[in-house]
């Protein structure tokens, strides 16, 4: 800036209409030194700030109108003449000469420039020391919100994840946050504890994921894992999150402090949309609150009676951030530690008490919609909270004995009674459940979830998440008592209604319902009886088969469960089982060899090593289940011979079996080194993992004389079994 004179800048400003910003920056630069007069600095900042904030407000609210008089946006000119660099230097100086007001102005100016001028946020993100320094500004309540919002924006574009263990006195910083600050801090944590990824985890190929995992092993823990460990080492951190997640609206911070935060939001751009939503909710309140929104706009918030719906909105927006952090921690390396703490601090019974009044409350059609969005948009806080809640339940229940905390004492007793009546041992995890930590009230959280699930409209986006959450309760070793608990509440009939009668079209919802149906029916004679009672006509059964066959990637887990159940039933001597075998359309259909071969051919044909993902690898395992059961009956050579014939009939000799050979080679690489995945296969199928390994080895036997080896059925000219699995 020193290379320009004030006279020169003034003359150019008349032509270019720069709003006097370069001249102000020249003065700011001259006074931004250690021994400068910071009063003058503050006056200059007060002049610059409104020039940028008005532009940023218009930018965010999509009302930006550039006329011929404003050729260059103010924020662009501010950055062009070094304003961003001057502001960052000034912030560092202010740390030595404590001035919260000036720090707020600097932070506001920086954020507004980030909002409007492309590239500024990325430049700040590259300054790692500056980003770390920003964390220290959150010690002051006056600058907390501005600092947190700027950090969140910067971390959103930062290529390398920040490491929280590099933040000075992190434990002290977080421990001194009040509950509102901690909730807002969770927005930052959401970025720092989630693995940096580009896209849906299910869509990434297993080849790429395996390669990444090998690379990660050599590099040590990721930044996200380090950050999770850093947070869990802070005394009382998880306990405070649980209290935030479960506090009632009436227990939240009083009106005065909330109004103070609303004032901050009103002047702080990131929350302009939030405020817009809050104001619209306030306008729907009863007449005695009519003056509220106009008072907000005038910026003079005094002791007002805060509308209840605004309190609810405030609490919802906090809770969805907190639940996200808890969900990520539940899926991390310290999962068991987090599980113990979440159980101890009664997160589940706390959420159960909030279920009707906050999480799944009834609300007006327009109440909780952000500016520019509609009621069914995933950006709606109400919808986001519900989805986050369901994801948390899914992570909490998945393959963990703490899942029984989702029930109340009466429901746990019901599980025991089901086991007693069936003359089977009680599930050990039920016996070990600490009754002081379970849900209270008339219904547990799982039962409440089933109730809203059955009432959900056909087109609802929640159906997928609800089914996933309930299915996670059933995953693992099959429990007859768990299945009967859900069957008695009409879950099977609800699923069949959605699949058959509503003829659901959503692939995601169908997949989640098929997976849930498979877990609900597996090895359970009563479930198959109920199925046959509901699907009581050929017309209904054909609709059901049409849904199954429309996408085997979505329905193959059900096919696997029915196939496993059929095998078990055929080996049982029981009148009830014999009756089901003779009457059930689905079991009769699956028992036919042509049906099994059709499934087998298509399951192998729709996947390839290069396209295997966490979502579709189940097709490979289902095809293996069919062949393992054939091997048990000494029919494996027959099935392989039939596959060979089907290949020839499709005019593609060798294509399917070569592909299957490559898939099985990959299977060995993927599963033989993953204890968790192999345990899941064993528990879900009730087939020992050693039998899985043996079957794969037999199929991959290189001896062409072996009647159970794939190579025996691939003619020499079509042999192509040595492909490299390297991800291109």
TrEMBL record:
- Per the UniProt entry, what is one GO biological process? ubiquitin-dependent protein catabolic process
Q: What GO cellular-component annotations does this UniProt entry give?
A: Cul4A-RING E3 ubiquitin ligase complex
Q: Which domain of life is it from?
A: Eukaryota
> InterPro entries from the xrefs?
TRPC4AP (IPR022162)
Recorded GO terms, molecular function? phosphatase binding
Q: What is the name of the protein in this document?
A: Transient receptor potential cation channel subfamily C member 4 associated protein
Q: Which organism is it from?
A: Equus asinus asinus
